[in-house]
Amino acid sequence: MSLFLSPEHVLQGGYFHATLRKLQEPNTSIEPHNIMYPVFLLEDDDAVQPVSSMPNVFRYGINQLIIALEDLVLKGLKSILIFGIVETLPKDPTGTAADAPSNPVIKALPKLREAYPQLLIACDVCLCPYTSHGHCGVLTAAGAIDHAASTKRIAEVALAYAKAGAHVVAPSDMMDNRIKAIKDALVANKLQNQVSVLSYSCKFASCMYGPFRDTMKSSPMEGDRKCYQLPPGSAALAARAAARDVAEGADLLMVKPGLPYLDIVRQTKDKFPNHPLFIYQVSGEYAMISRSGSASEVQATLMETLTCMRRAGADCIITYFVPQILNIISNKN
Ligand code: PB1
Prior knowledge:
The chain is of the alpha/beta class. The chain has helices spanning about 20-25, 60-75, 105-115, 145-165, 180-190, 210-215, 235-250, 260-270, 285-290, 295-310, 320-330; strands at about 35-40, 50, 60, 80-85, 120-125, 170, 195, 200-205, 255, 275-280, 315-320. Helix content is about 40%, strand content about 15%.
């Protein structure tokens, strides 16, 4: 047996230098267009409220959100995802406030479009922040999801946000066939070439949404969301959900939560390489990383996590860490 390993077994010559390492990590860069900033919008235009369970995350009225976004846009922010929160508007079984003219999202969209013409503005579309029962759809008298009523209602809300100025509507409800209902509504209103549909296609019934539900006051009053969000152990249902949404016309796909579901990210990207794929790094993931150590340790853990998400196939990562990431990118440049 030779004293020397065969040459092809000596790998360190391929990554001893930083530039070589970059060449070994294709498609994992983190640039401003690879991140999307989720923001919470209150009814009170001038309010700013910290989110106790999520350090450095705030709930804003539109006037304060416009101020808060200014520095981030200067640092390169490319896209945001808006979640409306109602405190005075009434909640009811069909989520009437979701597309009421006084809804904070509908009121904010024209102002955001005017303040930041280049910013891509996505709106989460769901009933749970607006329903008295806290579920993401409309319920039957027996308390089950009313499929037809839910998809009709979700499409109505998506169309209202599209008409108010959203570039992207992102239905997070997980109802079957809501993508087709939304696309049909956009086509019927001649908006299909001005508004994109970002489907929360592979969204799991995760226990990592707690901080979000606390700040949104959007937990189900009874039961859970396991009959419409995917079972965490089912890669098969995730594959079928993504195929369903692609067939119904989704422009953009998503896997949510992120880090524990990178196998789903890879399977989705391999199956649908021509659809931009988003990961939602959810509130529970944010809380875990935020508390993972010193500021420098949090930064290192965050960037490693984002690199792994990009390696798994994510094109864009929805993350509450956007301000920190933009600072890291700015400092690098
Ligand atoms: O950061 C997060 O935890 C996001 C939670 C997510 C927002 N799209 C939802 C998950 C849930 O509460 O079930 C909201 C569902 N419409």
